[in-house]
Amino acid sequence: MKDDFQKAVEKANLYAEQAMVVTLSFGNAAIEEVLKDRDGNILEHKKQDFKPAEIGAAFLQYLHDEKVPHVLIHQADDHLTIALAREELAPPGEAGEKNARAVVAGFFKDGRQIALNSEAYYQKEVPHTALKNKLLSPVSPLRREVAKNAARLNGK
Fold first, then answer.
1. DSSP string covering the chain
2. pTM of structure
């Protein structure tokens, strides 16, 4: 397990050079839904309990259904790490995470936000010349996989 997590951290650092890395952690959630008629009378009251693993799976399904380009870096019962396309036109000095936050907010609304324990957004600011030199240097299989998936994410 420790080795898997260490590999995921290494992979996330490589993705951060070319994409936005998002880590989300989940908790147990009880979501209530109340249906009322026009007069405000309660027609139906439903309560569902969700485990963190179910929330993570539902979020990944949401990304798939909404056709959001992403790469799953690491998934555990209570958290996951994904790579999303990097914002090309983000001003220097800003994290450029507006689109990634919008994707996360699109799923965690209407009562689901209580299931989201924490969220983290990360990308490395690498000058293009340094990145180009790094990509031309001898490439490990992991770096090759990351470069291929990041190019797909960023539409190149």
1. -HHHHHHHHHHHHHHTTTEEEEEEEE--EEEEEEEE-TTS-EEEEEEEEE-HHHHHHHHHHHHHHTT--EEEEEE-SSEEEEEEEPPTTPPTTS---HHHHHHHHHHS-TTGGGGEEEEEEE-----HHHHHHHHHS---HHHHHHHHHHHHHTT-
2. 0.74
